[in-house]
Write a structure and sequence with these properties.
230 residues, alpha/beta, TIM Barrel, eight-stranded parallel beta barrel, 10 helices, 16% strand, binds cytidine-5'-monophosphate
């Protein structure tokens, strides 16, 4: 089965921009991610259009609410026919279990965000989280797995450790990817596609290096090739 490892982040504010970009991609080489900005602007209709173009969609809405609300939101998202959705692991055990139970196994993949990479030690301390980020990320990943989730979203820095501790069946989705010679933009710690895959990422999320490229398909080819050769 074709299982492309690249997820292109469609960080646009209109459906038109997103559709123009995907028409320049090859669905055999990538999946696409719709986040809060694009979904708020373009909604389920855009998800349907992308699925009709045979793209598999990661709906990155990071649900975080009471268990019943998150379970119902997951059910509705899955009914759109998306490939992957996510929730915040900080929503806790009951919320994660409710999300899992809402999705029949083998349908939409369900992954958790552990800690947002924008949170440093100081931010964590202000909200009363005194542990080191690495140990919290490990705890939240264990929690996600024990609740039956398929995996977590993690930065390139954590990928190798989580691959080791969580085993090979646990799905790791890694953003913050920059092919060699590309600007880091606002990403603090970047990993190349090959480094991320070699560290154990199943899927890598790439936005601007592809979406802002003069020739998006060329960059997609290059990244696919880099991964294959690795
Ligand atoms: O353009 P760029 O490659 O930086 O886009 C990365 C995508 O991954 C964005 O959609 C961003 O929201 C998402 N993301 C991230 N870092 C995280 C989690 C998600 O960059 N820790």
């Amino acid at each position: 089965m074709n299982d492309p490892r690249i997820i292109v982040a469609l960080d646009f504010s209109t459906a038109k921009q997103a559709l123009m970009l995907v028409d320049r991609l090859d669905r055999k080489l990538c999946r696409v991610k719709i986040g809060k900005e694009l979904f708020t602007a373009a909604g389920p209709q855009l998800v349907e259009k992308l699925i009709n173009k045979n793209f598999e969609v990661f709906l990155d809405l990071k649900f975080h609410d009471i268990p019943n609300t998150v379970a119902n939101a997951c059910k509705v998202a899955s009914n759109l026919g998306v490939w992957m959705i996510n929730v915040h692991a900080l929503g806790g055990k009951k919320m994660l279990s409710a999300a899992r139970e809402a999705l029949p196994l083998g349908t939409t993949k369900l992954v958790a965000v552990t800690l947002l990479t924008s949170l440093g030690n100081d931010d964590l301390s202000i909200i009363g989280l005194k542990e080191e980020p690495e140990s919290l990320i490990q705890k939240l990943s264990n929690l996600a797995r024990s609740c039956g989730l398929d995996g977590v979203v993690c930065s390139g820095l954590e990928t190798a450790q989580l691959r080791q501790t969580m085993g090979k069946e646990f799905c790791l989705v890694t953003p913050g990817i920059r092919p060699v010679n590309f600007s880091a933009n606002d990403q603090q710690r970047v990993t190349t596609p090959r480094q991320a895959i070699e560290s154990g990422a199943d899927y890598i999320v790439i936005g601007r290096p592809i979406t802002q490229a003069a020739d998006p398909l060329m960059v997609l080819w290059q990244v696919s090739d880099e991964i294959r050769r690795g």
